[in-house]
Amino acid sequence: MAAARRLFPFHLHARAPARALAAVVAVATPHRRGKHDVASCKATGKTKPSRPKAKAGKGGERLQRRALEEHLKRRTRSGAAFDAELYGRRSHELHVPVLLGEVLATFRRPRQLRSFVDCTLGAAGHSLAMMEAHPEMELYIGMDVDPSALEIGRAHIEAFLASREAKGGKDDALQGTLRAYTHAKNFKYIKQVLGSVDESLAVGLSGVDGILIDLGMSSMQVNRSNRGFSVLQDGPLDMRMDPKATLRAEDILNSWPELELGRILRDYGEESNWQFIQKQIVKTRATGGFHSTGDLVKLIQRMCTISKGRQGWIKTATRVFQALRIAVNDELRILEDSLHSSFDCLATGGRLAVISFHSLEDRIVKKTFLELIHGGEADDEEEDEDDLALTDMDGEDEPWFNQRVQGRNGIVLTKRPITPSQEEEKLNQRCRSAKLRVIQKT
């Protein structure tokens, strides 16, 4: 299969026929672990009997913290009216796009969207909705490091455009012909990909109008046991997004130095009990090591206290799997570098939108956006000052971005990230930890 493919150019016409909403498959996915989480993993058979401790005010502090968290959640929830019909058209049986209405709202302004890049194509839910909403689009580029996901997304785009061409015929109101390309590339290569299509896009002479990066794991990946991403299905300890990569989760578990193993459990998994898990993994190496996700899950189950159901161990397993996946794919370093590259590729007035799913990603996006608009290191203390928040912007009426941060190179349109509406969370539980942040180049 060729790494990149030019899709046949089609004219854009009427909307594609609606489809019934695909059923959402409930799967275990990595999620942000807040400070309120209680460590669920305890060593069995080695702990001393606990003595009751008098902690006056502990319950009250916990209630206050939860009330504050719920207040912050309400403050950042999307105020968009939920469009079930839109989700019905753009959902796939293997994947439901997250924050779809909010992404569409992001790119309605401030300019026509004549060029758009989807850095994480997946099943093409976001891309198809963007094509439908922007008949003026002349250039589309879809990228995905996962060749299986790319094939699915590519097929959906081809079918969508062919359907519109067949039903639309000739239209005098047509604003242009869409050139569509797909590339089997990680989004860190965005400049290289844009340069292969049009050199002026990569060197900053023109730039693109919109770029989307969705960092979430799709159900297409999680539900396939042979990829090794799911804690609920036994499979190889792989976890590579790019099958051509050499490092696998099995290599980390069986051969990485103990200190480095502990570091990724602590930093990438945000696991409070990382030291005990690290020691148990090293002990298991001496008795044959790990060769499947089931081996790792069994170890975690033995270590964790299971009270009701499987929630006791599954949260710990999810954090461990998250840590391994991030390390295997070098996700955090790639993310920071890619944000800089993507911002460079934007035209003046162009926007970059990023959807993250756990706190590590969100912190990087937040910090890097501030660095980009200020042209240097972000000041963690300064970024929260009230005088950076802009409540209005030259008469623009965009309720999605009610607090903004102005810099000399751009505007962060989301001082606080946008989170899914309650209606979307009911439809798709996997979206509950999603956060959308948007930056605009000036």
Written overview of the protein:
The protein has helices at residues 58-76, 84-90, 100-106, 125-133, 147-168, 190-197, 199-202, 219-222, 249-255, 258-267, 274-285, 293-303, 311-329, 331-345, 359-374, 422-427, and strands at 4-11, 115-118, 139-143, 177-183, 208-214, 346-356, 389-390, 404-406, 410-412, 435-441. The protein is an alpha/beta fold. The chain folds into two domains: 4-23 and 79-219 and 332-441, Rossmann fold (3-Layer(aba) Sandwich), CATH 3.40.50; 244-329, DNA polymerase, domain 1. A ten-stranded mixed sheet has the order 1-4-3-2-5-6-10-9-8-7, sandwiched between helices. The radius of gyration is 23 Å and the shape is globular. One of its GO terms (biological process) is rRNA base methylation. Keywords: Methyltransferase, S-adenosyl-L-methionine, Transferase. Belongs to the methyltransferase superfamily. RsmH family. One of its GO terms (molecular function) is rRNA (cytosine-N4-)-methyltransferase activity.
